Amino acid sequence: MQRYSGFGLVKHALSHHENWERQWRNPTAKKQYEVIIVGGGGHGLATAYYLAKEFGVKNVAVIEKGWLGGGNTARNTTIVRSNYLWDEAAALYEHAMKLWEGLSQDINYNVMFSQRGVLNLGHTLQDMRDIQRRVNANRLSGIDGEVLDAEAVQELVPILDCSRNTRYPVLGASWQPRAGVARHDAVAWGYARGADAHGVDILQQTEVTGFKIRDGQIYGVHTTRGDIEAKTVGCVAAGHSGVLANMAGFNLPLESHPLQALVSEPIKPILDTVVMSNHVHGYVSQSDKGDLVIGAGIDGYNGYGQRGSYPTVEHTLQAILEMFPIFSRVRMNRQWGGIVDTCPDACPIISKTPVKGLYFNCGWGTGGFKATPGSGHVFAASLAKGEMHPIAEPFSMFRFHSGALIDEHGAAGVAH
Amino acid sequence: MFYIYCPYCGEHREEEEFRPKGQAHIERPAEPEACSDEEWGNYLFFRNNPRGVHHEMWVHAVGCRKFFNVTRHTVSYEILETYKMGEQPSITADSQSLPREVAAVSHQEGVWA
Question: Measured between CB atoms, does A206 come within 8 Å of chain B?
Answer without folding.
Answer: no
